[in-house]
Automatic annotation (TrEMBL):
Keywords: Glycosyltransferase, Ligase, Phosphoprotein, Pyridine nucleotide biosynthesis, Transferase. It comes from [Mycobacterium] kokjensenii. Residues 10-132 form the Nicotinate phosphoribosyltransferase N-terminal domain. Belongs to the NAPRTase family. This is Nicotinate phosphoribosyltransferase. It catalyses: 5-phospho-alpha-D-ribose 1-diphosphate + nicotinate + ATP + H2O = nicotinate beta-D-ribonucleotide + ADP + phosphate + diphosphate. Residues 154-342 form the Nicotinate/nicotinamide phosphoribosyltransferase domain. Transiently phosphorylated on a His residue during the reaction cycle. Phosphorylation strongly increases the affinity for substrates and increases the rate of nicotinate D-ribonucleotide production. Dephosphorylation regenerates the low-affinity form of the enzyme, leading to product release.
Length: 433
């Protein structure tokens, strides 16, 4: 593939460009507008969401342009004036939003984009594609982190999704509290700690009566006794015995990837202790989600490997964000479609808390006009882009801060807001509009 064909400007939908063409033709393209990204409601079974994707959007904005290859493509259906506009396109507007890692709820104004109609409308698909996926993964990951109750989780779902989605999923999971990922590109691109040892194929490669033991000895020779040996290729009890024989009682960990994990974990723990490997940890994997992790809380499991459920949002593959025009030339505009209404005007938000730090309510209000409130409150909306230039922190420091923000946000929720069962949002949203 010609690398020039992979330009950022084509990460959009055709209808955004046909709207642009019509607006340029009738003179409305330069009207000052405000767009907002929000979720009308939280997805079912979600009591909160975790904002993720902010840093990826800020990194993508400078590359959202139309090079010669892109221009040749859009010339197939656009008039010359629109093509000339796109040839020189750069976003020069302003963006405000929730900091990455903040929790959000229904109607939270997670992102506000201001500029001309022409420059704001073409960003819709880019914004939604990044935030809807990353946020869905981070929200699912946060539930898993809560279910793990302090025990580490490893993201290992790269083989269950698109190759680029896998990288985004690894970052979103780490942001939400996972210890690391198996994905090397996520490590290179975002600095996510990378983890992994071997799969069943390595054991099966070593054929013969002593095949499993030979595989374990080879892995220990290559990686040291602190490695993790996969013990369920044949028989778990025999596998554990072979693992300790190969590495000695200082073996780092064993992994179980199938079967009744709670029962097997207890049996393996007892066997390891009898063999003197009291410090050897137990890692479990195999179609885990937050409910399976919670069910294993009483089992002697030290860490979890999570794949398919994580990279598909654990049943909620999108955050449900929409991107709507809410203001034109300083005047609010509303969408009244049944079941898909939008509230006009730019908005900001505050979050109220008790003196203990437990949050009680989110208040959404007209931008620049905060309500008078009793008790501690924290402003959620921060500047991200001014005049097309990124003004927020980005990169590795921003990811570390977002990780801390998620942990603090979850700690601030009332205890019932952390339940995995279906129910009301963790805190109510009040619209002071």
């Amino acid at each position: 593939m010609d690398p020039s064909a992979r330009c950022g400007g084509l990460l959009t939908d055709k209808y955004e460009l046909t709207m642009l063409a019509a607006a340029l033709r009738d003179g409305t393209a330069d009207r000052r507008t405000g767009f907002e990204m929000f979720a009308r409601r939280l997805p079912e079974a979600r009591r909160y969401g975790v904002v993720a994707g902010t840093d990826r959007l800020l990194a993508a904005l400078p590359d959202f342009a139309f090079d010669d290859a892109a221009v040749r493509l859009v010339e197939e259906f656009l008039d010359p004036a629109t093509v000339d506009f796109l040839r020189d396109f750069r976003f020069r507007g302003d963006i405000d939003g929730y900091a990455e890692g903040e929790l959000f709820f229904a109607e939270s104004p997670v992102l506000s984009v201001r500029g001309t109609f022409a420059e704001c409308v073409v960003l819709e698909t880019l914004i939604l594609s990044i935030f809807n996926y990353d946020t869905a993964i981070a929200s699912a990951a946060a539930r898993m982190v809560g279910a793990a109750d302090g025990r580490p989780l490893i993201e290992m779902g790269s083989r269950r999704t698109h190759e680029q989605a896998a990288v985004a999923a690894a970052r979103a999971a780490f942001l939400a509290g996972f210890a690391g990922t198996s994905n090397l590109e996520a490590h290179r691109r975002f600095g996510v700690p990378v983890l992994g040892t071997s799969a069943h194929a390595f054991t099966l490669l070593h054929t013969g009566a002593d095949g499993e033991s030979a595989a374990f000895r080879a892995q220990v020779a290559a990686q040291g006794v602190d490695t993790t040996l996969l013990v369920d290729t044949y028989d778990v009890t025999t596998g554990v015995a072979n693992a300790v024989a190969a590495a000695g009682p200082e073996l780092g960990a064993v992994r179980i990837d199938s079967g009744e994990l709670a029962v097997l974990a207890q049996q393996v723990r007892d066997q390891l202790d009898r063999l003197g490997a009291t410090g050897t940890k137990i890692v479990v994997s195999g179609d885990l989600d937050e409910y399976a992790i919670a069910a294993l809380r009483a089992a002697p499991v030290d860490s979890y490997g999570v794949g398919t459920a994580l990279v598909t949002g654990s049943g909620v593959p999108t955050a449900g964000f929409v991107y709507k025009l809410v203001e034109v030339d300083g005047h609010p505009v509303h969408k009244r479609s049944t079941g898909k209404q939008s509230r006009g005007g730019g908005k900001q938000a505050l979050r109220l808390a008790r003196a203990s730090g437990t949050v009680t309510e989110e208040v959404v209000y007209p931008a620049g006009r905060p309500p008078v409130l009793d008790g501690p409150a924290r402003t959620l909306t921060i500047p991200l882009v001014r005049g097309g230039e990124v003004v927020a922190a980005t990169g590795t420091p921003a990811l570390a801060a977002a990780r801390e923000r998620v942990a603090a946000g979850l700690h601030s929720l009332p205890w019932e807001g952390l339940k995995l069962a279906h129910g009301e949002p963790a805190i109510p949203t009040r619209l002071a509009l």
